[in-house]
Structure of Integrase arm-type DNA-binding domain-containing protein:
Amino acid sequence: MAKLTKKAIDALPIPPKGQTFHWDTETRGFGIRVGASGAKTFVIQYRNVDERSRRVKLGRYGIFTVEQARDLAKIKLGEVAAGGDPAEAVVQARKDVTVAELCDWYLEEARAGRILGRRNRPIKASTLNMDESRIKSHIKPLIGQRKARHLTVADVEAMQADVVNGKTAKPRTGGRGGVSTGGAGVAPRVVSTLQSVLGHAKHKGLLKEHPTKGARKLATNKKKRRLSVTEIEDLGAAMMVAERHGENPVGIAIIKLLLLTGFRRQEGQAMRRDWLNAGGGYVAFPDTKGDAQLRAIGAPAISLILEQPTVASNPYVFPSAGTDGPITTARDCLGRLCAIAKIANATPHTLRHTFGSVAGDLGFSELTIAAMLGHAAQTVTQGYIHVDEALRLAVARTSEEIAAILNRGAMRLK
């Protein structure tokens, strides 16, 4: 090709696929790349002191004029003549990404499925949503502008202390009420998210080393709150009172199901009707915190599910009244029921822990209870479905016991 000019570049053909290069006859090593999308980008190509062929982008045609790009090319090629390597400078600049930039990269790559998590599978959307929340609420405000490769263990532990002390506390946005306070429960999770971002960046070659490997996370106390037998009775009575005063019966049904099964909140709320095998006594979850699982379920819970009214074109056991998805207000409903029953400090996880605790009261072993709760659950493998009979009986016995206690509370009002 002759000398690159605006007229010549405008007339360049667009390749049907891939890219083509056109080189300037005036400045050796200066050219333009044309992609199948129509994008035209100025480049230089040269050999460095190690005789390796290198290519560097200068800028997009339209943003740069031909004259501006040629002048920049002469500067860069002059650096090469002096023994420099502009391509290596670009690589080093990329390595100096900030923590905020690295977090943005992680979220984009993970949501596209290009970063793998547990069991070498794409990271779940729910996990990424929590990661994004921690990044926006805590990591970016505290250390977002720091250069990632210059972080130290002390920096991470200082960030953790700031989260514990409420330095990032602020009102929530996006329709959620209250204040994002941080605290001792959130702080170690923030550290876990940051360490995950840095670890994946090292694995993908964006960082030469994991700069904060070995940072210590604050120890947290596991939630041990359970409802006593009296509180379960009180909750049964509160369900009757709430329904009489207009509480959404679907919300009440979800709370009852969580207590009768030990399911996680989202597992109960988002359960689909076709996951239930009433005859087999199990629910086949296609995806849970522990991947696909079969979870045994007792007769009281099965009856509760089958009693729920169906909504056309909505596959969920507990359908939303306003959308084609499931209801999402279990936490709020539980709060109102607990206010009626005068039960303090109870969350949906408290119901799960109560189910396990009642199973323990009935004499079942820790290993059995772990399987009942899905920690060591039956799995779906190659289409073969099996739920251990002993596990089924343990779940049935526990579910029936809880149903009986709830009923005792409800009978007070009759």
